[in-house]
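Collaborator request, handled under Task 6.
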Amino acid sequence: MKKKSPRKINLAFQGGGSHGAVTWGVADRLLEDGHLQIDAISGTSAGAVNAAAVAYGLHIGGCDGAKESLDQLWRTISEKGKIFSPVRGNPFASLFGGEDYMNAVTYQMFDAMTRTFSPYQLNPLGFNPLREVLEECIDFESLRHCDVTKLFLSATNVKSGKVHVFETGEVSADVVLASACLPFLFQAIEIDGEHYWDGGYMGNPVLFPFFYEAESQDIVIVHVNPIERDEVPKTSSEIMNRVNEISFNSSLMRELRAVNFVHRLLDDGWLKDEYRDRLRDIRIHSIRSDNALVDYTISSKFRTDWTFLTELRDKGRAIADEWLGGNFHSIGKKSSVDLKEMFD
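Structure tokens returned to the collaborator:
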């Protein structure tokens, strides 16, 4: 019996600090499946870090290489975090109902400091431990010649306020740092005379490069930032966290609304036949790993202890496994997300 060809997909990775470890788990399970081929990857912030690691691993060693690349990346993040993270894991925290009081206090001190002083005052030399992680784990010169998948990493141009998408041949450690540059923590990253902040403000992640540059019409979005919450936030940190979630999801929701509009044009016969062939019928799929992150506090986005990261990884693997079981049959055929219901 002839073996079926893998189904091509595009992956879209959201950002979310250490919560990006859940994307590690999702990607790890998808790479393991053996029935999928990754045509292109779009990533923002922590999603850009994951995307670069996956693309580099695919480039040097196929799916197994990508799994190893992700593992090395997050192990290195955990090791560096023992020195630089403002939030520490506590093995006794679970005895007191979750995240421990000391972490809450140290994070509040850290948060107050970064809101009072700019990174140009606190960190005049522009040190960023993520640079060391990236340069240890990824050979960017080699990655720029990757031809097994396409890479799209987004950053926000500080002066113009527009999103800038860096493609495979342009990717460097600076590009990934630009995509993950939170302006209250790090100085803007300069690339070719332009300055960039975190891409999440304008595209978390961007989808439009898939419409023009990717062969596959199937986009699998790996969500990290919760879209919905059942309760109204009351504390200042909860309010700020929700504001960030809404703002970092807004660009993605706008693009999904545009895809939904095109679907309606095609489905409801609003277009003349001569125009229909000019529009691609993009199929959207969502791996809602953000639902598993709703109960985590904002400070946990800075946790890098190995126990916490692997906990999120395992959650991501389980979520991806469940998603494959219920939605794999839709790939190449139809969207597994009802965009009309989402926006109507």
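The cover message to the collaborator said: "Confidence is low (pLDDT under 50) at residues 91-99. DSSP finds twelve helices and eight strands in the chain. Please let us know whether this matches your experimental observations."
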